[in-house]
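My current task is to audit a protein record that another person submitted. What it holds is a sequence and that sequence's fold in token form. Thanks in advance; the entry in question is below.
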Amino acid sequence: MISFILTLKRLVSAIFRLGKEPLFRTLLGTLAIIVLSGTLFYRQTEGWALLDSFYFAFVSLIPTSVHTGLIPEASLSKWFTMIYLVVGVGVMMMILIRMGLAIVKFERSEEKKSESKQYNK
């Protein structure tokens, strides 16, 4: 449990630092627009509930093998999904990579702080 809390602290600290970078804010804004467009499209075309549409639009972009139980049926939805995934997965991966790099950077700065404290003793 303690390791989870420490990991969560690192993640939150990295995200706050990233929030100051214009590129990261742009990526988040782009991702929000992509997910919103996917949500509205699936809601309108497939007739799914708003939460189901959002869930499918978001989970589809995460590089995992989560099965949503939702499958686009209309031909237009299938074409949209192919284009949506090509664009959206790229943006999502860029965000995840930036977050990973920020966590590594945070770890290095924490190590340097602890090393400097040890030398000062």
Remarks:
- The first helix runs from residue 2 to 18.
- The CA atoms of residues 6 and 55 lie 28 Å apart.
- DSSP finds four helices and no strands in the chain.
- The chain has one domain: 23-112.
